[in-house]
Write a structure and sequence with these properties.
The chain has 15 helices and 12 strands. It is of the alpha/beta class and 429 residues long. The protein has a single domain, classed as Alpha-Beta Barrel (TIM Barrel), CATH 3.20.20.150. Strand 1, helix 3 and strand 2 form a beta-alpha-beta unit. The structure holds 6-deoxy-beta-L-fructofuranose and manganese (II) ion (MN) (2 copies).
Length: 429
């Protein structure tokens, strides 16, 4: 039996206000899709099977480099975070996994597993952290971690990743995500080739400890915290890493880790075409690694990413990239942001499923540019909300995510037992 944090009667009462309208909206959209030769139920079933992992660090109030304003009822530890993730999962019915970050979430792995399974949650990729120093560790990562010039520092970073694999084995993760902040701040500070060689050597040791059924994801990021050069700075370097390491190594694409206007959907296509697309950190951005809510700035781009994913999926039934959110929330309730983001990612998936791939291909082959572009526009402009809402409703989730969450008064309730955490205690970059 799965425990529910939000009283199911609250969800039922909220849904009761909306279910007749939802049925009408769903049927009417179904009719219109029928005319396009699309079965709405088939789309809904795919949407219902879609899952996206919630990052444990996302349910806390992040803050910026300048300040952190604590929110009421913030999680005190990873066990509170798991409860917040359970709320998101219960209402969205789309996020039944959590992605942990070590050492932020360090706790007895058996307890972690128990805490999550109580709510029917599992664990997605586990994230290592060698971009910040950990209390009690001898070496500092000030000048790098897996790629550091100092061998003892590299060794400590390797051991941290091995520990993450061990924790992951107990809690049921099947992948390790490695993002490093290594790079340089001044021309001449490092030798690019030697630094990358160190990184590859370290990663080969980590790779050799991966269980057979695990994957390792490496995450590229153009800059920050290193501002002149970054070791894993783009998808090209990321691809080289995945190739060097072997079959269990894949690239992870965090949408915020590219220069503005970069054609991310094309990067997605390239990596998928050559079998090295492992997964995503979804978020949105206007300028850099802003970690804004997925779909909040450029929903069309999110759709175009899913257009590529569905294209691959339609040819390769085994294609299963990991979907994770990676956001930081400064001015919103993180639970609300994460619920809406999960639903926006799902929305892009549903819209991409509406693209008539055969007709699109035919238009492309005939160089009928506008017909091809129109296929994407028509799919993107379709309001698929009734599909998402019906999928949630049928699975016991909330038709209206925000209204139901607010009606539950969850935040006010936990605020009574979770004191406000002092400023500056965020573990978020
Ligand atoms: C780095 C990053 C990476 C980290 C997370 C906290 O910017 O995207 O995924 O693990 O943020
Ligand atoms: Mn990320
Ligand atoms: Mn990031």
């Amino acid at each position: 039996m799965t425990d529910h944090i939000i009283d199911p009667s609250v969800v039922e009462a909220e849904n009761a206000k909306l279910s007749t309208d939802l049925r009408n909206d769903y049927d009417s959209l179904g009719e219109r899709l029928d005319r396009r030769g699309i079965s709405i139920d088939a789309i809904k079933n795919k949407v219902a099977a879609f899952n996206i992992a919630v990052p444990s660090w996302g349910v806390g109030t992040g803050g910026t480099r300048f300040a952190r304003f604590p929110g009421k009822g913030e999680p005190r530890d990873i066990f509170d975070k798991i409860e917040d993730c359970a709320v998101i999962s219960q209402l969205t019915q789309a996020t039944n996994t959590v992605s942990l970050h070590i050492p932020w979430d360090r706790a007895d792995p058996n307890r972690l597993k128990q805490a999550a399974s109580r709510f029917g949650l599992g664990f997605d990729a586990i994230n290592s952290n060698t971009f910040a120093d950990e209390k009690g560790k001898l070496q500092s990562y000030k000048y790098g971690s897996l790629s550091a010039a100092d061998a003892a520092t590299r060794q400590q970073a390797i051991e941290h990743n091995l520990e993450c694999i061990d924790i992951g084995k107990t809690i049921g993760s099947k992948a390790l995500t490695v993002w490093i902040g290594d790079g340089s701040n001044f021309p001449g500070q490092v030798n690019f080739a030697r630094q990358f060689e160190h990184y590859l050597d370290s990663m080969k040791t980590v790779y050799s400890a991966l269980p057979d059924d695990w994957r390792i994801f490496t995450e590229h990021k153009m800059y920050e915290p290193a501002f002149y050069s970054t070791v894993v700075q783009d998808w090209g370097t990321n691809y080289l890493i995945a190739k060097e390491l072997g079959d269990k190594a894949y690239c992870l694409v965090d949408l915020g880790h590219h220069a503005p206007n970069v054609n991310i959907e094309m990067i997605v296509s390239r990596l998928a075409q050559f079998g090295k697309l492992g997964g995503f950190h979804f978020n949105d951005s206007k300028y850099g690694d802003d970690d804004l809510d997925a779909g909040s700035i450029d929903p069309f781009r999110l759709f175009l990413v899913f257009n590529e994913l569905v294209d691959v999926e339609s040819r390769d039934a085994d294609f299963r990239p990991a979907h994770m959110l990676d956001q930081s929330h400064n001015v919103t309730d993180p639970i609300e942001s994460l619920m809406l983001s999960a639903s926006d990612v799902q929305r892009s998936y549903a819209q991409a499923l509406l693209v008539n791939r055969n007709e699109l291909s035919a238009a492309q082959d005939a160089n009928d540019v506008l017909t091809a572009a129109q296929h994407l526009r028509v799919a993107y402009r379709t309001d698929v909300e009734p599909i998402l809402a019906m999928s949630r409703f049928e699975k016991g989730g909330a038709i209206d995510l925000l209204a139901t969450y607010r009606a539950s008064a969850y935040r006010a309730q936990v605020a009574q037992i979770r004191p406000e955490v002092a400023v500056g205690s965020s573990g978020i970059v």
